[in-house]
Design a protein that fits this description.
Blueprint: E1 3-10, E2 16-19, E3 27-30, H1 33-53, H2 64-69, E4 77-82, H3 99-111, H4 116-143
Antiparallel strand pairs: 1-2, 1-4, 2-3
Helix pairs in contact: 1-4, 3-4
Length: 144
């Protein structure tokens, strides 16, 4: 299990916000410190799962010293946030597709906020599930 630095920020009349220096743009909040920590773990795990699904690299955790050396981070209180996901290693593959199919994949993926790799991984998982469901249905009908 990896641990990343989360920075808790609290402004008057606001919830406890949490940001992650190793993952710019990933933020969450909680109504109290315990809730903020729980939300931070969930947000970070979901973000990392998305990176893995999209075939993106997962950064190594920065040290506390490196995070706090950045003047922009000094107004936050550092906490360790555990990643509760079994991130699987992404493997690069070479696939040959007709050009028009690749263009259609890219257009669809972009329109839905996905990368090509993320779309292909989702499509493959969907097809595998569908074929398994079809196979199990056929097995049940034959044994009935």
């Amino acid at each position: 299990m990896r641990n990343y630095i989360g920075l808790i920020h609290k402004d008057a009349e606001s919830d406890y916000g949490v940001s992650f220096p190793d993952f710019p743009g990933v933020v969450t909040a909680g109504t109290d410190l315990d809730n903020a920590r729980a939300m931070a773990e969930e947000a970070l795990s979901l973000h990392i799962e998305g990176l893995v699904e999209d075939g993106e690299a997962i950064p190594e955790p920065s040290s506390l010293e490196a995070v706090m050396a950045d003047p922009e981070n000094r107004d936050g209180v550092a906490i360790l946030v555990a990643v509760k996901t079994e991130a699987k290693k992404a493997v690069r593959v070479n696939v040959t597709l007709p050009e028009d199919v690749l263009e259609e994949i890219d257009a669809f993926a972009e329109a839905h906020g996905l990368t090509r790799s993320g779309f292909l991984a989702r499509a493959a998982k969907h097809e595998i599930e569908q074929m398994n469901d079809d196979y199990n249905y056929a097995e049940e009908r034959l044994s009935a």
